[in-house]
């Protein structure tokens, strides 16, 4: 039987790696994008091994009800990755909340209509897990896990519109899944880095590039929740093929201070001229952790941050974004 899956927002950072791995495993992929005729968005996908035979593009609009009906009908699994990512917006409702929330509702409504779908996997975010009042007092004795939920009120108070959009979308998804008997899994990656397949840099890769180029301007006590994009893509496939997969999965390989990132990069890339953080300027507070237990139960083995950073920097070099 032909293995047919759908990936929404297929030209995105995580989605592109997911499409690549699915094609490598023999799946037929129905890829939704806003404009299949825009070569700047789809050329990197068309060049993937197996794309000529098993990758098919569909135009779909997150805000258009029924837009995904014909795409998901006939698929066994739907991976819903499409959702806007932005830290600064002028109209949070229009730019972030509506596409994330209404887009999720529209995709799931299409899935509910289709009799072939066995499971839906949604790419959520760690920001729908840990953005709450408890996050104000995170010490070394704290382990954040899948029982944590972000608080929409707290998100609004902080004007954290991206976290709000992901939290509202996830809440709506679980409500629909319960009411309609939909087999749903949500994945919650942290700051996703690693070599991109798409030609333009997504927000998280761009953030890493800025950290490297302008690190002297940044505070060493900034904390990042890192995960490799390839591990996130593999987790999506594991969530599909593992019959026991259920519920939510945090995907964070390592929680680290920014100065720890510098410590990893400096010996490997001495020509980057990265700042040196003096011992007295380094935070001494031990960091909280994010549980990897459920993710590892899916068979996910997180890459060391050292490998992810090395591959990211080498990708930046190959694209002439930095000079080594």
What does this entry look like structurally?
This protein has 324 residues and is α/β, with parallel strands linked by helices. It has one domain: NAD(P)-binding Rossmann-like Domain (Rossmann fold). Helices cover 40% and strands 16% of the residues. The chain has helices spanning 13-24, 39-46, 51-54, 69-72, 92-113, 152-157, 161-180, 203-213, 229-241, 258-268, 293-297, 305-318, and strands at 4-8, 28-33, 55-59, 77-80, 119-123, 143-144, 184-189, 191-193, 223-228, 247-251, 254-257, 289-290. The strands form three sheets. Strands 3-2-1-4-5-7-10 form a seven-stranded parallel β-sheet, with helices on both faces. Helix 1 links the parallel strand 1 (4-8) and strand 2. Helix 5 packs parallel to helix 7 (161-180) and helix 10 packs across helix 12 (305-318). The relative contact order is 0.13.
Please outline the helices and strands.
Blueprint (H helix, E strand, L loop, with lengths): L3 E5 L4 H12 L3 E6 L5 H8 L4 H4 E5 L9 H4 L4 E4 L11 H22 L5 E5 L19 E2 L7 H6 L3 H20 L3 E6 L1 E3 L9 H11 L9 E6 H13 L5 E5 L2 E4 H11 L20 E2 L2 H5 L7 H14 L6
Parallel strand pairs: 1-2, 1-4, 2-3, 4-5, 5-7, 6-12, 7-10, 8-9
Antiparallel strand pairs: 9-11
The CATH class, by name, is Alpha Beta
The description of the largest β-sheet is: 7 strands, parallel
Biggest sheet strand line-up: 3-2-1-4-5-7-10
Q: Class by helix and strand content?
A: alpha/beta
CATH architecture: 3-Layer(aba) Sandwich
Point out poorly predicted stretches: none
Fold-level CATH name: Rossmann fold
Roughly what is the average pLDDT, rounded to an integer? 95
**Mind telling me the CATH superfamily name?**
NAD(P)-binding Rossmann-like Domain
Number of separate structural domains: 1
Helices, by number, come to: 12
What's the overall geometry? Answer: globular
User: Which percent range fits the helix content?
Assistant: 40-55%
| Ends distance | 49 Å
Strand-residue fraction? 15-25%
Instruction: Give the strand tally.
Output: 12
The whole-angstrom Rg is: 20 Å
* N-to-C order of helices and strands: EHEHHEHEHEEHHEEHEHEEHEHH
């Amino acid at each position: 039987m032909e293995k047919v899956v759908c990936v929404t927002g297929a030209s995105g950072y995580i989605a592109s790696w997911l499409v690549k791995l699915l094609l490598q495993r023999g799946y037929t992929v129905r890829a939704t994008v806003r404009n299949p005729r825009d070569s700047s968005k789809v050329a990197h996908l068309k060049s993937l091994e197996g794309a000529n035979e098993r990758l098919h593009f569909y135009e779909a609009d997150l805000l258009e009800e029924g837009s995904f009906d014909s795409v998901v009908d006939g698929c066994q699994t739907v991976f819903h990755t499409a959702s806007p990512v932005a830290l600064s917006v002028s109209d949070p409702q229009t730019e972030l909340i509506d596409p994330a929330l209404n887009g999720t509702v529209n995709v799931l409504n299409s899935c509910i209509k289709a009799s072939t779908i066995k499971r839906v996997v949604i790419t959520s975010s760690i920001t729908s897990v840990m953005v709450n009042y408890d996050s104000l007092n995170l010490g070394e004795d704290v382990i954040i896990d899948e029982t944590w939920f972000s608080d929409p009120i707290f998100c609004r108070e902080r004007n954290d519109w991206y976290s709000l959009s992901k939290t509202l979308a996830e809440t709506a998804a679980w409500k629909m899944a319960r009411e309609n008997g939909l087999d749903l899994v949500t994945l919650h990656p942290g700051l996703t880095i690693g070599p991109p397949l798409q030609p333009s840099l997504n927000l998280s890769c761009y953030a890493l590039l800025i950290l490297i180029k302008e690190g002297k301007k940044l505070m060493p006590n900034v904390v990042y929740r890192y995960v490799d994009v390839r591990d996130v893509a593999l987790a999506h496939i594991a969530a599909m093929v593992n019959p026991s997969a259920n519920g939510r999965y945090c995907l964070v390989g390592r929680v680290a201070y920014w100065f720890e990132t510098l410590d990893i990069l400096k010996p490997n890339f001495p020509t980057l001229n990265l700042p040196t953080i003096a011992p007295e300027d380094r935070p001494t507070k031990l960091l909280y952790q994010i549980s990897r237990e459920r993710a590892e139960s899916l068979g996910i083995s997180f890459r060391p941050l050292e490998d992810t950073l090395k591959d990211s920097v080498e990708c930046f070099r190959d694209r002439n974004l930095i000079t080594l």
